Predict the 3D structure of the following.
Amino acid sequence: MQQDIVAGVAALWPIIVSVAYVIGAVWVTVDAVLRKRHVPAIIGWVGLAWLAPILGALAYFLFGINRIRRAASALDLKAESAAHGVARRVRAGAVPREEFAARHPGFAGLDRLGEWVTRNPLLDGNRVEPLQDGDAAFPAMLSSIDAARTSVTLATYIFDNDAVGRAFHDALVRARARGVEVRVLIDDVGARYTRPTMIRVLRAAGVPVAAFLPTRVPRLFQYANLRNHRKILVVDGCVGFTGGINIRAGHWLGRRPAHPVQCLHFRVDGPVVTDMQVAFAIDWAFTTGEGLKGERWFAPAVNCGPVAVRGVPDGPDADLDNLPQIIVGALSVATRRARIVTPYFLPDSVLLRAVQVAALRGVEVDIVLPGRSNVPLMDWAMKPQLPELIEKGCRIHLAPPPFDHTKLFVVDGTWSLIGSTNWDARSLRLNFEYNLECYDHDLAARLDAIIDAKIAAARPLGLVDLESRAFPARLRDGLARLLSPYL
């Protein structure tokens, strides 16, 4: 009898697996078609579900579902409206359209687009200071924390438990001991690169800290989507830092780290710091339920520089596709030069075509990429799209080691985009990012000089280099590119 039962179960097992496979694939197809905006992502997920029985549906369940939309609608609306109420007090500093058009001819349409997309005005009177690598950024950030009198808010993707992380830990603890209100938000995945995590260490020291979207299976979710990739530090509600630098020892090149990483960060002073604090306050309210209100967190706006700046939040909620629309807009108004520096370059077909069209219009398009990525799969996936860019007139430059994590986009020596976003699907559609679009000739000139230095040190990439690769390498790269909707 027992043998008959075992035999019966064995006979049914293929049927059970087949039914589960079909149900899972049909579910993925329906959900992806109804919920996802981007056709390549729909095709990629549906194809994976049907071609990888069971595993495809499981991968979609773990990585493909945007669970943040419903959660975002459950934000503490009082906290959000209070934060935006403070922001509205600086809207009086918004640049009048007529004045803006006179100062920056040819960019009025991009300004209008930015305000329509983000619902944030362009704020005048800011100072933006580039800080190259952790060598300049970390001392400036630590000094500001040590000078804090009322509040410190810090959001970061990676906060390692290393020499740099402990320096920030000590500065935050000292600020807390002086009576400064401190709030620290660390992405749950980014916190787990070192153990014990700085979330645990800061919490043990009495510093209010929270993990953004905790994951139940940390190792499995090491490359999961819907991460908070923003880097925002605001001190006393009036001094801000943002850019691409994580809190980890690799960015402090002067200390000769084992794994050096170049990057660029910025100190920001002026009215737009309020918008930076708004972005933090919304993320903090979403994560903890606590609303940050009052002048302790939002200092009165003071004009202190010549740069007109707009905060550009982007993420898989109400801010979805903010950045892609602004990038396409910037490429469309470019008349002389568009310069892109990014560690990962896997834009979707719309952005890729916009870059090509800009080059075909006669715009000088320079794209600076790392000569070798820190993620080999990204290196492979990027290569198949580069020949068409070169054929259309784009110039590709491969930066030498150490790995360059810089994110910059500068147009016509006037407009620049700075912040945390990479040119790939993960940054542009799946993660929470924060950027600033800046209008100022002097700032753009300083950033152009940084890009000039990178290009001078880089190796130009030509069609011969790409076409001379061995067949196995070209096949590997082509197959890796098929994964671009998931990268």
